Amino acid sequence: MTSRILITDYAWPDLDIEKEVLSAVRGEIMVAGGGSPDEIIALAPQADAILTCWKDVPAEALDIAPNCRVVSRYGIGLDNIPIGRATELGMLVTNVPDFCLEEVSDHVMALLLATARQILPLARTPERSGWTRETPRPIPRVSGQTLGLIGFGNIARALVPKALGFGLRVIAFTPRLQPEDAPDGVEVTNDLGQMLAEADYVSIHCPLTEETDQLIDDVALGRMKRSAILINTSRGGVIDEEALIRALQEGRIAGAALDVTDPEPPAAENPLLSLENVIVTPHAAFYSVAATAELARKAAENVVTVLRGGVPKTLVNTEVLDQENCRLPSQG
Length: 332
Prior knowledge:
Blueprint: E1 3-7, H1 16-22, E2 27-31, H2 37-43, E3 49-52, H3 59-63, E4 70-73, H4 83-88, E5 92-94, H5 101-116, H6 119-122, H7 126-129, E6 146-150, H8 154-165, E7 169-173, E8 186-189, H9 192-198, E9 201-204, H10 218-223, E10 229-232, H11 241-249, E11 255-258, E12 278-280, H12 289-307
Parallel strand pairs: 1-2, 1-3, 3-4, 4-5, 6-7, 6-9, 7-8, 9-10, 10-11, 11-12
């Protein structure tokens, strides 16, 4: 029997890896064109599974997908999937929590070093700035400065040895970890204000949830050093963007390096794209050839596991297994 898999969107050239993996369940792929809500809703009733990257999966699409057993995320974050509704309907939700750990942590270090060493101002062509070492602000010595982490998941943990290698002090804000359980070289605090006040670089690594939505607001920015840099490779919504723009324009923090914005892509007139103390990259921190190939395979393998009646190791909503309406098929 053929299984129909709805792919809402993807960020790589083709679906060859997915086709190979899904052939194990005779998978027929349906792609939602541009991934608009209407396109997803139109295809959802036929779907036995949904694979999604960045596009929002409408709750309505799940409501009209009686055969859908699993929603598999290409990635770590789950803010584009209505997990609660999926669980109510008996659908399993999975992700790939070990995706792009090296790539994103490398990108954070690249952004940190680029801002610390002020690479962009120094790299301007002679026609624009002349042969000069003048920079908008003094260049600090990186070694001995403090990197503050908001959240301490897999990516933040992958970042730690790289930061320590450059001589940075690392302090992590995470309410879920006690100081005595912190890895070597990491200080842990549950006081966000304390961390913001001490850090020379603040790097965001928390998911976007109700608790973290616009966590970095006027108050939080006001606690940072005037010389501090804010780095975000997580989700744009964690930052109150208008508050950040004001802080940058008024010199209340020294700069920002952002791989994510809210919305994406940012509007052409967004001041973040023109401020000289800001670097914006196009949600590319995750990317490498190896990482995207691994992601496609693991996300598709999660679908195959469920359609064969198995429980993926990366099941997010484990409570669904105890429900009478759980859509996990029997292995008989």
